[in-house]
Amino acid sequence: MKILTVNFLTCAIKSCKTSPLSFPLRFKDAELEQQEIAFNPTFIQNILPRIDWEGLKTTAAELGFTTLPTSKPEEDSTAQEDETVLRDLHTLLLEMQVTEGKLVCGNCGHEYAVKEGIANFLLPNHLGEVLLKYFSQGISRGFWGS
Fold this sequence. Notes:
Blueprint (H helix, E strand, L loop, with lengths): L2 H4 L19 E9 L6 H7 L5 H10 L16 H17 E9 L6 E5 L2 E2 L5 H12 L10
Antiparallel strand pairs: 1-2, 2-3, 3-4
């Protein structure tokens, strides 16, 4: 699973969709692998406006990537500065992959397994029903132990 993908995901549970805690999903026990691909600055420049920068910074920090700037790169940056940032983003977003681990919702605590680079977002029937009942009753997050 590429890091870019995580920037577009939230918890699959409907009641979590409105909670700011459900984004970004947090990695737990993540195993990373780098797969080198050709640098494509045009793709990075075109995807940049669609990226939630705060979510990306959170994910990057959790995975140990500290080279991201504090604010999203703008068009007025110098060419050399821009190239360095674009290469760092290329490495993080496209080359780094999570091969094993879990994605965890910060709202409900549900864990989505990542196996062989594929996240499983299917909820078991009983879990969907229990969580629906849980959230419809308005019980606090303390149930999940967080």
